[in-house]
Amino acid sequence: MAIKILGTGAYVPEKIVTNDDLAKMVDTSDEWITQRVGIKERRVSETETAADFAVNAAKEAMANANITADELDLIIAATISAENICPTVAGTVQNRIGATCPAFDINSACSGFMFALDTAVSYIARGNIRNILVIGTERLSKLVDWDDRSTCVIFADGAGAMVIAPGEGYLASKMFTAGGDDVIKIPAFGGTSPFYTNEKPAPYIFMDGQETFKFAVNKIVNDVKEVIEKAGMTLDEIDHLVLHQANTRILDFAAKRLKISKEKIIVNIDKYGNTAAASVPIAFNELAKSGRLKRGDTVVMSAFGGGLSSGTCLIRY
Ligand code: UT7
């Protein structure tokens, strides 16, 4: 059904912040972050926005796909950390790369890119689409409370993008939303209305790490199995797993419970931290560039997080 991935790209800001740098700001250590999360360093923006990252990732994906802006029929960007509510990130990308197609943003937190890709697949199924640019981009450094050691050591900035076209490569997918706000919540700016009487919550990331951890492991294991079954395949037939880079312990649990070799799971959280909607497309781009991904390979992509939500798909590259 539906798609072929023509090209991928990614972009991260230049500034590297190490665990030791963070240990000078909050009560943490390289040892704790490495052992409990698996991150060694992350990229943090100084001036660039989520839209700036998206433009750079998009340009690389289009160059790799060998297509120009006028060959795009749709742009979808997944993000929770755009600088502006309007214009959208996708609209900004459209404008800056010189495209004229419709463009819109999607928010499903860390699983946003998976929802954006699934939406793009539906557009392709409607027909009359040549190419769609799908982006995941985040400047989470603006949503983090830099005094909160339980989140500021985890989240980071970056973007990934894919150009997709009609093809045969989207074998199965599963999107899930629970919709509660007790495990992960990021309040938006509360406004300055003199008429509001309710309290304005701080606009930072709140996350119950342990509950999210349990949700993540269960969703990855069950949803990965489910999409593989839906496609009439078995786990042995999967060549690569590109999973949300939230914690190496989650990736290790997933490998163990799915009984798959860790070699098949892409890991780059050590370099980039958790970049929410950008995590899967950045990791996918790394896999594509590594030379390990061959045409015809099967790849499971899966992301989970705020919502609570998760999105998983199986593709043939
Ligand atoms: O992208 C969205 C999806 N997000 C996820 O999937 C995140 C899933 N959750 C996790 O990855 C982990 O739960 C965390 C990395 C967030 C936290 O790790 P944990 O092993 O679950 O730690 P915890 O929250 O149970 O805290 C254990 C201890 C606490 O101290 P006490 O109460 O035992 O004295 C925390 O205060 O670790 C402490 N702690 C820290 N210590 C040093 C929390 N953050 C830090 C820190 N440095 N940065």
Topology:
Blueprint: E1 3-11, E2 16-18, H1 19-23, H2 30-36, E3 41-43, H3 50-65, E4 74-78, H4 89-97, E5 103-106, H5 112-126, E6 132-139, H6 149-152, E7 157-166, E8 170-177, E9 184-185, E10 206-207, H7 209-230, E11 240-243, H8 248-258, H9 269-272, H10 279-290, E12 298-305, E13 309-316
Parallel strand pairs: 4-5, 4-6, 11-12
Antiparallel strand pairs: 1-7, 2-3, 6-7, 8-13, 9-10, 12-13
Helix pairs in contact: 3-4, 7-8
This protein binds oxa(dethia)-CoA (UT7).
**Total domains:** 2
CATH topology term of the largest domain: Peroxisomal Thiolase, Chain A, domain 1
What is the CATH level 1 assignment of the largest domain?
A: Alpha Beta
Q: Kindly state the mean pLDDT as a whole number?
A: 96
Rounded Rg: 19 Å
Which regions are unreliable across 5 or more consecutive residues at pLDDT < 50?
none
Assign an overall shape: globular
Describe this structure in words.
With 317 residues, this protein is of the alpha/beta class. It folds into 2 domains: 4-170, Thiolase/Chalcone synthase (Peroxisomal Thiolase, Chain A, domain 1, 3-Layer(aba) Sandwich); 172-316, Thiolase/Chalcone synthase (Peroxisomal Thiolase, Chain A, domain 1). 33% of the residues lie in helices and 23% in strands. The protein has helices spanning 19-23, 30-36, 50-65, 89-97, 112-126, 149-152, 209-230, 248-258, 269-272, 279-290, and strands at residues 3-11, 16-18, 41-43, 74-78, 103-106, 132-139, 157-166, 170-177, 184-185, 206-207, 240-243, 298-305, 309-316. A 5-stranded mixed beta sheet has the order 1-7-6-4-5, sandwiched between helices. Strand 4, helix 4 (89-97) and strand 5 form a beta-alpha-beta unit. Helix 3 (50-65) crosses helix 4. The two termini are 12 Å apart. The protein binds oxa(dethia)-CoA. Residues 28, 32-33, 36-37, 110, 149-150, 153-154, 209-210, 212-213, 216, 246-247, 250, 274, 276, 305 line the site of oxa(dethia)-CoA (UT7).
